[in-house]
Each structure stands twice: as C-alpha cells, then as structure tokens.
Design the sequence.
C-alpha cells in the first residue's frame, strides 16, 4: 500500500505532465487572481499540482519524498488517517493567501508549484529534528535549524527585492503554517524541539 507522501508525488507528477501537454489545463490550474475573484477558488489548491518545468517539479518532489516520509506518521492519527494529506493541501492554500491579498487586483500575477506545501513539510521536520543535517544543493551539509533561519531571512529579502518569478512569500508562509499546525496538532512537539535545540550533541 502506498504511503500518502508517495501518492501525493505520483498525483503531482501526473498532473504536471498533463498540464505541460495541455495549455488549456495549465492555464485553468495556475493561480491567477482575476480568475479567483470570479469564483474559481479551486485555484488555491490546483496551482500546487502543476510546475513550471521539470527541474521545478524534481526539486519539490525530491524534497517532499525525503521529508514527507519522515514526518507523515505524526499526522496519521488525525482525520481518519488522512491527516498528512489535509496538512499538505491546507499548507498549499494557506501559503498562497498573503500573495493573493497582495495581488488580488493584479492581472499580470501568476503563481504555481507545490513549494508552500513542501515548505510546510520541511519546517515540520525541522521541529522534530533541528540538528539533523540537510544537504544544500544535495552536497553541502547544514544543520536543519540553521537552514531554517537562512531560508526565512532569504525569503523575506528576496520578496522585498522582487524581480523574480519565484513566490518567496509562499515559501515563507508555508513554512510558518507547517510549524504552527504541527504544534497545534501535537503540542508535545514544542518542548521536544526546545530540548533538542538546547542539546545539539545528543
């Protein structure tokens, strides 16, 4: 039986591949504020299942595969066993809300990709194992907590600077949702995180 992380990856890859072959489908799924204003609220979800290109898809799904499987069990007891799926989809939605509010009247704004959900999964993992090594560019080891600090700082900087097609705000809010939602669902995670943070050698 497939775990939910693998199932999400399979669905995302299939939808992304179909959207690349079908421009109409791609345009219907992408996040576009004027369309949302006209009642197409499903775009808050659908944009998270299409990607700009193969590298965008590969990076997000590679990250989700490793960290999703590591934390999926934490959410398993909730919502009849579908807690992780709901957590992931909600993260995609919540991560897009600030961008929508900022660009709701911007007819040139477009956004796509699973980064909000993937960021939520990554930051939830950091709560559980703050000193675990993450590999930057799959090569350079860096403690998870230091990566989190650098990630947030860079996302704020890049969002303020602008001039990029990457939705850095969604990354940041997705990560924030991952932290808050995980603590709300399992409050014991917070003291665990603090203890782990203060005991890097154990």
Sequence:
């Amino acid at each position: 039986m497939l775990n939910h992380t693998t199932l999400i990856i399979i669905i995302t890859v299939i939808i992304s591949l179909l959207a690349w072959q079908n421009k109409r489908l791609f345009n219907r799924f992408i996040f576009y504020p004027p369309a949302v204003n006209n009642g197409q609220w499903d775009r808050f979800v659908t944009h998270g299942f299409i990607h700009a290109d193969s590298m965008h898809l590969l990076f997000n799904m590679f990250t989700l595969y490793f960290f999703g499987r590591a934390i999926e069990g934490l959410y398993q007891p909730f919502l009849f066993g579908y807690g992780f799926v709901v957590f992931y989809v909600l993260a995609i939605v919540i991560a897009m809300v600030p961008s929508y509010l900022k660009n709701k009247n911007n007819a040139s704004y477009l956004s796509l990709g699973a980064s909000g959900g993937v960021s939520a999964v990554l930051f939830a993992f950091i709560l559980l194992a703050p000193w675990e090594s993450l590999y930057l560019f799959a090569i350079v080891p860096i403690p998870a907590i230091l990566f989190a600090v650098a990630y947030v700082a860079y996302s704020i900087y890049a969002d303020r600077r602008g001039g990029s097609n990457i939705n850095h705000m969604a990354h940041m809010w997705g990560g924030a949702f991952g932290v808050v939602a995980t603590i709300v669902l399992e409050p014991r995670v917070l003291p665990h995180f603090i203890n782990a943070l203060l005991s890097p050698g154990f």
Summary: The chain has a mean pLDDT of 89.
